[in-house]
Design goal:
It is a single chain. The chain has 203 residues and is α+β, with helices and mostly antiparallel strands. The chain has 3 domains: 75 residues, Herpes Virus-1; 61 residues, no CATH class; 41 residues, Classic Zinc Finger (Double Stranded RNA Binding Domain, 2-Layer Sandwich). The protein contains 4 helices and 10 strands, in the order ββαββαββαββββα. The radius of gyration is 26 Å and the shape is elongated. It starts with 24 loop residues before the first strand and ends with a helix. InterPro entries: E3_ubiq-ligase_TRIM/RNF, Znf_B-box, Znf_RING, Znf_RING/FYVE/PHD, Znf_RING_CS. GO terms for molecular function: zinc ion binding.
Length: 203
């Protein structure tokens, strides 16, 4: 008998609450599956009403259903996870001349952004916390660069975000309070704009 070829995608095995691959998958009475912790936390918020619902189809259950780990689904997700790892497109691997992700272990991915707050470069996957977590909200991201130390003040370890016209050099905001106090300064981005306008006028 010929084997049927089935194509499984990550989305089919994602929890609709956390949007990640299912962890400790459980199927609730309506047939929808969730991570054990996700549905527990969801139902904990409904405890006061005593009626429990499915976040997807809104079917209600009383009393609260007892949850059991779906071992077969857990195996499928595990196989899907291991299948996803090696299929990372080779074009994401860092090659000669590319900036490598500082977090990747083993095969290094190509960095897409560098963070002046962390002084590290990140691939798409490891950059996600900078977009999702409030802890990284004030970090300044730039195009991936392998020369991060050159963008940081050697005296204060702060990003060089200010241009001192008096001394014609990039400095950090703390420098404006110390050795560059009272100097003619502008933001580095304003200086870049000035240079671009000057070039256009020459042309």
């Amino acid at each position: 008998m010929a084997e049927a070829s089935v194509t499984l995608t990550e989305n089919q095995f994602s929890c609709s609450i956390c949007l990640d691959l299912l962890k400790d998958p459980v199927a609730i009475p309506c047939g929808h599956s969730y991570c054990m912790n996700c549905i527990k936390n969801f139902w904990d918020k409904e405890d006061h009403a005593g009626v429990y619902s499915c976040p997807q189809c809104r079917q209600t259950f009383t009393p609260r259903p007892v949850l059991g780990r779906n071992t077969m689904l857990a195996e499928v997700v595990k196989k899907l996870k291991t299948g996803l790892q090696p299929t990372t497109p080779a074009d994401h691997d860092a090659g000669p001349g590319d900036v490598e992700c500082d977090v990747c272990t083993g095969r290094k991915q190509k960095a897409v952004k560098s963070c002046l707050g962390c002084l590290a470069s990140y691939c798409e996957t490891h950059l996600q916390p900078h977009y999702e977590s409030p802890a990284f909200k004030k970090h300044k991201l730039t195009d991936a660069t392998g020369h991060l130390q050159e963008k940081v003040c050697s005296n204060h370890d702060k990003p060089l975000e200010v241009y001192c016209r008096t001394d014609q050099q990039c400095i950090c905001y703390l420098c404006t309070m110390d050795e560059h106090r009272g100097h003619d300064t502008v933001s580095a981005s304003a200086r870049v704009a000035e240079i671009q306008v000057g070039r256009e006028l020459v042309i």
